[in-house]
Amino acid sequence: MSRRSELKNQLAERYAFQLRLAAAALFVLVLFGILVARFSWLQVMQHARYQTLAEQNRISLVPIVPPRGIIYDRNGVILAHNFSAYTLEITPSKVGPLDDCINRLSKIIDITPKDRRRFKKLMEDTKDFESLPIKTRLNDVEVAKFAANSYQFPGVEVKARLFRQYPLGEVASHLIGYIGRINDADVQDLDDAGELPNYRGTDHIGKVGIEQSYEQELHGTTGFEEVEIDAGGRAIRTLKRTAPTPGKNLVLSVDIKLQQIAEDAFGDRKGALVAIDPKTGGVLAFVSKPGFDPNLFVDGIDPQSWNDLNTSPDKPLNNRALRGTYPPGSTFKPFMALGALEGGYRSANATINDTGAFSFGGHSFRDDKVGGHGIVDMYRSIVVSCDVYYYSLANVMGIDAISKFMGSMDFGSPTGIDINGEVGGVLPSQEWKRKRFRTPATQKWYAGETISIGIGQGYNAYTPLQMAHATATIANSGVMYHPHLVQFIVDGTNGARTQVEPKPEKILPWKQANVDVVKHAMEGVIKEGTGAKAFAGAQYTAAGKTGTAQVYSLKGGKYSESGTKAHLRDHAWFIAYAPAEDPKIALAVLVENGGWGAAAAAPIARQVLDYYLTGKQPTQAASEVESSDSD
Amino acid sequence: MIKEYFRRFIRPIDPWLLLFTFLVFLLSTIVLYSASNQDMDKISDKFTFLGVALCVMWVLASMPLQVLMRLALPMYVFGVLLLIAVALFGSSSHGAKRWLNIGVTKIQPSELMKMALPLMLAWYFHQFEAHLNWKHFISAALMIVLPVGLIMKQPDLGTSLLIAAAGFYVLFFAGLSWKLIGVMVMAGGGLAYVVTHWPLCIHILREYQCQRVATMLDPMQDPLGAGYHIIQGTIAIGSGGMFGKGWLNGTQTHLDFIPERTTDFIFAVFGEEFGLAGNIVLVLLYLMLIGRGLTIANNASTLFGRLLAGSLTLTFFTYAFVNMGMVSGILPVVGVPLPLVSYGGTSMVSLMAAFGILMSVGKDRKLMKV
């Protein structure tokens, strides 16, 4: 190409580009023109309308908070409800010096130091222009006194509000949970879920338990009112009103009387109990001891009480049934036995000779009973809780077969109960150990470790909920239901009940004959074994298994309860279902540092089963019931 | 001697761009003072941002255009790699994966792409200046689709559309066929139609995006939720009238009705307090800036410079248009700040960086003349 035509070409290109620039300029002018036209429309043509709107805007939309759904137990007993009360509220940004204002207020209405502390705590979590309660539940005299003096207190007002109340206090606190004031993290979550607009005007949200996991159902839909307001801020008339939709009511599968008996049975001891209807997965009782009073949280907990709850060595806020993991001890044995039968590792009739210890790799694994139980078959191994039988069984099965079988019953994984925060626990396996530890030496699974797995010790760690779930599965011969706490969701406006349909999670392909062997042996525990003393004179047949889980290994010497520090004492377990021929309830009891399962845990189970099956009320605390002293 | 030094120092600066920028900045400071309830910390922050932004601008303005050309490819590749990294192990917030956690801080690679894509495309077309054909346009379109697709997946519809627009502008200035542009405009219109019709919409966009469009068409559908911004923004602007309620007198502003009033919705404050007159002044200032940018594009000596300057200028326009459009209720609410006015460092610095590049293009021509 000649230099000349190249130049020409460049000129042509230049020209084409300038054409494009002109088009771009036109594009810009047209679009800006549209904008200016829009501004003119808004600011000139529609100015009057928007000016009025801006005036009205000063207060136009007032949200109407829906009443929160009520929580009932299976028999219609109210566990959580709302009541209306007057509260004295301060909007910090409107009152000037805050302390001065509160001091002046306290001359009219009694304001305790606790009220002050709680108010300060609330202020940390909220914005200054929000109105916050300094004192709740005013009586008529207080309301009248304030009304007479209200002119002195701009920014302070008495409001009628709905309050959440838990009439039974500590009972079932861990399962019901509580509501608390919406904090920044809640706002973020609501915003992410697109739920924030529906929470305009709402100060509270479910924090734990049913209150949290069924928040959506309980909350309802916020309504709003368009109110015309004069310059002084007084509402003149309502222009339009969209009614709120009240939250849905919940009917739990829990029997609160049973729950109360179970909680009382624990006395001062720590622990957990979960009782399940094996035919539906409906939870009948869900105990974590000690509990706490959820009413403390409703108006904003004061820092002192919060600190007490948090620093208590008994950890009352810890939901042991849902989140506490413990080795199951001997309650693991029926499951081991079933696994052995199902996998063909050992027949029910095969016997071993228990001489008091099992030797493996130069190490001696001892039995609880000095000298051993002698000749033991599968039935006896469960009835007398023979350790040596299960040492040798675990050795035969190997860790992979054990963890595969136990995994099929949800051991080591969450059961899927309908409250948040459930933990999985630990079902040990070669793979688990590889992931859990860092160095190759610690990652390796040693055959010796399998031995203690067989009696529910070692790395085994499960929640009481999992144990109850697995017991229910045995009771139901392998048909598993997800445990659930809510039975019906009831529409408060029309009373329509939606059942939380019990669907089998899965059906385990067990041979009925194998299940029957284990069930028969668990009945034997109650009739003639380690549970016999606790269940003497029962009017129904029951099946169960005691367990005592070591908190730490003893180096020589026999375990003695009095000689061991309280927090190192063994955990007592008991699992059971009844009636044996047609199970209506399955449960697991754990008494933290309670010592022998037969002595500490089985009497609690007895009282719960007695009440549930015969309506018999306990006459003395389970802790005082005399019982067998061996596992 | 000192005079000579000073002259050399300011030589890369384009006085017109700088002047209009300062005027917009002045207006924005006045508005921010009101919008932030006289928060002097925010005002001083804003000056800090300006200082940093001016330095960035000066550095880029002094940089020879050849250096920018050499940076184009690596910047683009780096940007795409970062976007892939975000898709693989980005950190989520509000349900979107947009950030890359690099220990000390979180970075948003889509910001880098705003600059890198026009650079890359301008450089690419520049390579084939004499014999551009349709194949080059196809490759260029692919270069746009790759990062835009990645950003759309985050999901960040607003940013991905803006970056797509920046890329499209380069194609446009490089001579994309008018017919094709016509087809694309019609396709865009078709898409807009689909988006505004609910049942079809949810298959293509995420639900919240549909919600936004539907809300724009009828804000009263959801007056407390998604419609709230639009309703309050238009009320503020509309109630401003011809000359506004006056500085510091906006009731919408000062009674807390306008959300994000120092950032994305600052224009509502502007419209309320300064009225139509104020809005027109602001639009005119933007128009001056855009006019100056297009002039620089026109005078640029190389195709690279022309394409880059043209694209950056139109992108700047797009930001201004989209923000004012969304606040006044003719476009859906997407998180785009009002250029040079909204409070925020990142936006200020990246805009001034773009001006720095424009100045570098302008200076290039001066050097040629001498």
Distinctive features:
A: 631 residues; alpha+beta; 7-stranded mixed sheet; 5-stranded antiparallel sheet; 23 strands; 38% helix; B: 370 residues
Verbal overview:
The complex is a heterodimer of chains A (631) and B (370). With 631 residues, chain A is α+β, with helices and mostly antiparallel strands. Chain A has 23 helices and 23 strands. The longest helix of chain A has 43 residues. Chain B is an all-alpha fold. In chain B, strands 1-2-3 form a 3-stranded antiparallel β-sheet, covered by helices on one side. The relative contact order of chain B is 0.15. The chains are: A alpha+beta (631), B mainly alpha (370).
Report Rg of chain B. 21 Å
Mean pLDDT of chain B: 85
**What's the helix count of chain A?**
23
Helix content of chain B: over 70%
Form type of chain B: globular
- Tell me the structural class of chain B: mainly alpha
Number of helices of chain B: 15
**Any idea what the shape of chain A is?**
globular
Secondary-structure-derived class of chain A: alpha+beta
- Largest sheet properties of chain A: 7 strands, mixed
Give, in order, the helices and strands of chain B.
Answer: HHHHEEEHHHHHHHHHHH
Estimated share of beta-strand residues of chain B: under 5%
Helix content range of chain A: 25-40%
* Poorly predicted runs of 5 or more residues of chain B: none
Radius of gyration of chain A in whole Å, from Cα? 33 Å
For the termini of chain B, the CA-CA separation is 22 Å
Biggest sheet descriptor of chain B: 3 strands, antiparallel
